[in-house]
Amino acid sequence: MNFISRIKREVGFTIALKRLMKNVEGIDRDSDVLIADDIEASVDAHRGNVAFIFGNNMQTYAEFDARANRIAHWALGQGFQAGDAVALFMENCPDYVTTWFGLTKVGVVTALINSNLDGSGLAHCLNIASAKAVITSADLARRVAGISGHLEGKPSLWDWDGVVGEDLNSALAGLPDERPDRKHRAHLRGHDLFLFVYTSGTTGLPKAAKISNMRARRSFRIGITTCNLTDQDRIYITLPLYHVTGGFVGLGGALLSGATAILRAKFSASRYWDDVSDHGATVIVYIGELCRYLLNQPEHIKERAHKIRTGIGNGLRPDIWQKFVDRFAIPKLLEIYGSTEGNVFLMNFDGKIGAVGRIPKYLEKNFGDVRIVKFDVVSEEPVRGDDGHCMIADLGEPGELLGRIDQNGPSDFSGYHDKKATEKKILRDAFEKGDAWFRTGDLMSKDAEGYIYFNDRIGDTFRWKGENVATNEVAEALSQYPGIETANVYGVPIKGTDGKAGMASLTVDESFDIDGLKAHLAGALPPYAAPVFIRIQPEADTTGTFKYRKVELVKEGFDPSQVDDPLWFSTAGSDAFEALDADEYSKILGGEYQF
């Protein structure tokens, strides 16, 4: 990069950062301005604008507000008070947003339940929120009714369709559409609860993260700042609204700017470009695996016939970033980093491929609340020096990303409904006696220019042959091989060996040929990082937000008696993968092969 380019980059970075700081100015824990006030102000400024497009239906901001007001009056009629919790269990639709907006007008906390849940997982999420009612739709209401005997507090069931639970549409029909008196939320402040948003549950049952009004007000402004949103934009949201990327960054940016949110109940790769083109989307909200799924689709006649000027999201891996931009003619992608419950937020303002954010050296003092520390992947703990304190990772060295906890500032950490789970995420006495830091659980690295890169999740990185293996690095190498659509990489133990051997669960198309895979990996990875075992699944096992599930895969390992899918393995010195059956499995356990 030449001198002029560097100057332009720094000027652009500074302008974007100042714009973000200005947009969040005055948002603090003691502010009496809440997220409901922000949205009502936007409604008043854009009453005639289209708030939502859903299928062939449109809803203006005025209509959206009126329906939410009926929800608020319904909640008051049920006797709900500020601080009470109501669970929302629905797929994406305008009434999803209407419901939590109406509830927050009177201070009621909404628990956003993953619409894929059923059985014990669903009961768990409803119970930990102490929900007094569940609002849902006919198809999902049946799931709630099926677990009613396991629900604590016996919450009432309200069905928009009136098929299974009480008829919510009928209950709203006679209620006023004027805003309820603000006195119902007047005593609340920025630190008070707005929502419960649940973690994905990739390694166990979901945890309910507490989202304050202050946190939501800041998060809702991210899209406005980074994408320069106006009331003329149309934002396509196919990610679930029960999570932060779709529900806060995408939807929040639309609501506070007066833009139009184009909603789809669920992601559809085959319908994606029809929706984007037909509805005139100007902004898309993505996660990395969504982009990967689109790249794996056959060419679509409308995939470049669109008005998209930018995309915002997270998890876009370097191996597909440029491919996605080039194939679909997307002028700019803005990668962000953050977690549902965390206090660390990073942003890639200039589109540097692979980076999740940047903290240049001249701003390190301003970002002293974010640090990357040396990490031991075996103990899964930060490394401490002779003085007992954590040590800053070297440039290029993967380490855990930490965020200082300041409960009186923007880097607060509300934690989870479960206090024990909250404490597990806090690292104490990290750099000085009495300090507290949020553990992101992510291994990151930083280069000389301050760009920060995601390496792996803690627990995903494993040790083999005395070396650390980053699952994301292996997955990227696998994705470059013809015919591999998705790659989920994890470590599995082999009896008689130290550490964990690499295993990859793949989804493939008809062009996949395993005969050339070993040679490809030999050229793309160091020997210790190449997977020892391969499993071919008919489809990837993911959460509702496309995060790979690994717990069951690790448990099943490479045991043919536990796995119905095709299995393959490769020994040390071998130039190919061989089919793994019961006999070969016994030989592996008996130590007859060298790995």
From TrEMBL:
Domain named AMP-dependent synthetase/ligase: residues: 40-359
Predominant localisation class: membrane
GO molecular function, one term: ATP binding
Pfam families membership: AMP-binding, AMP-binding_C
GO biological process terms, semicolon-separated: long-chain fatty acid import into cell
Membrane topology listed for this record: Multi-pass membrane protein
InterPro entries: AMP-bd_C, AMP-bd_C_sf, AMP-binding_CS, AMP-dep_synth/lig_dom, ANL_N_sf
PROSITE patterns tied to this protein: AMP_BINDING
Superkingdom: Bacteria
Subcellular location: Cell membrane; Peroxisome membrane
All copies of domain AMP-binding enzyme C-terminal, residue ranges: 473-547
Family that this chain belongs to: Belongs to the ATP-dependent AMP-binding enzyme family.
Protein name: Long-chain-acyl-CoA synthetase
Species: Parasphingorhabdus halotolerans
